[in-house]
Design a protein that fits this description.
Strands 1, 2, 3, 4, 5 and 6 form a six-stranded antiparallel beta sheet that branches. By secondary structure, the protein is of the alpha+beta class. It has one domain: Hotdog Thioesterase (Thiol Ester Dehydrase, Chain A). Strand 5 and strand 6 form a beta hairpin. The chain is built from five helices and six strands; from the N terminus they run H-E-H-H-E-E-E-E-E-H-H. 24% of the residues are buried. The longest helix has 18 residues. Helices cover 31% and strands 28% of the residues. The radius of gyration is 20 Å and the shape is globular.
Length: 190
Amino acid sequence: MYPIIRFAKEILKQRRAQKLGLFDTHVSKHICWPWDIDIWMELNNGRTLTLFDMGRFGLFTRQRMLKAMMDQGWSGTVAGSTVRYRRRIRAFDRFEMRTRILGWDDKFIYIEQGIWRGEDCANHLLLRTAITDKNGLVRTNVVADRLLDGAVSPLLPDWVRAWVRAEAQRPWPPELTEKKAPLPPPTVAA
């Protein structure tokens, strides 16, 4: 179940927080609750992605972009992601989430997020996000002009550009089909 109350509380809290600049890092504090864990008694990978949602909405709220997007009739969507899970987070563990915009290309905005316990990064996420309206994708130059005072993206880090190139090689639609694999030839009894 999506944590709607937790999500709403986070948004209200961030509305009162200090405004952030476009490339500033939003830091939020969280607790891994028992309903966030899986059968291994640690933060569930799916719930991790949901918590990252809260970090992005917190960032956009503090940057005052969330309201501006709504005023334009725009919404955000995730167009791709890659996650590294490196350290366990168990029930009642406290952790810090860090979220920042890295930059954009002609279609997508790239966001980096991490969940930290002390000095250790437990999970790290790279996201490709898009702004959409009723007609589909809103190009980032339009977003920059209307919401970001014409800001220009910094050069994306090498590792992000490498991921973008790798994603461009990935087939779409996927080559997964419902075709059944051929049966192996029958074995001959001796």
